Amino acid sequence: MKKVEIKLSLAENVKTFVNTVNKYDFDMDLRAGRHVVDAKSILGIFSLDLSRPITLEVDDDEHVDQKKLEALLEDIRPFIV
After folding, report:
1. Measured between alpha carbons, how far is 46 from 28 in angstroms, rounded to an integer?
2. Looking at residues 63-67, what average pLDDT do you find?
3. Contact 17, 9 (CB under 8 A)
């Protein structure tokens, strides 16, 4: 599992982030403390405390194309803390 700390402080950032991660077909979650939501869900993300960095968890098992995973990380670079 690949984990990356991200920061989504503005509503526009959440919209851009969700649009970006929805381009990829692998499973992703966001974890804030003990709360976990689907990283592709705008409503789920807004249920988290966005005043602090949150953890993006990407399931990178053997079925995930590593080049696509690297592309995802490049696409979300503006949000990585």
Report:
1. 16
2. 80
3. no
Contacts of 7 (CB under 8 A, 6+ apart): 13, 53, 54, 79, 81
In order of 18, 35, 65, 68, 70, the CA distances from 24 in angstroms are 10, 23, 10, 8, 11
* Confidence (pTM): 0.89
Taking Cα atoms as reference points, which of 18, 66, 23, 60 lies closest to residue 43?
A: 18
User: Contact at 8 Å (CB) between 40 and 58?
Assistant: no
* Residue 31 one-letter amino acid: R
In terms of C-beta density within 10 A (0-12 exposed, 13-18 middle, 19 or more buried), how is residue 54 classed?
Answer: buried
Average pLDDT over residues 49-68: 86
**Token pair 């993006």: residue:** 56
Place of tokens 């709360």: 35
- By the 8 A CB rule, do 21 and 13 touch? no
